[in-house]
Amino acid sequence: MAEFLFFPPCGDPPDLSGRDRQSLIELLASTQERIALLDEQEPEDMESPEYEVWADQHEALEDLADEIRDLLDKMGGAS
Questions:
Q1: Which end of the chain is more exposed for a tag (fewer CB within 10 A), N or C?
Q2: Are 16 and 24 in contact (CB under 8 A)?
Q3: Per-residue pLDDT tens digits for 32-58
Q4: Can you tell me the distance from the alpha carbon of 66 to that of 32, in angstroms, rounded to the nearest whole number?
């Protein structure tokens, strides 16, 4: 019997509209932390259902990080 790993749900993406620069920087940092934690849980079997769930969550977080970076670039960068 296969062992299923638990991956915390990503939930709905946060609303980025109306956020100030500092709020976006903090959200980017926390999103990057979540990606790093998820990286530590990457299933070995790329053909497993667990990997599919993991990959979907990882992709969603990466998309969120990219969207935040784009907004920060429009505001003059993250630094």
A1: N
A2: yes
A3: 999 999 999 999 999 999 999 999 999
A4: 10
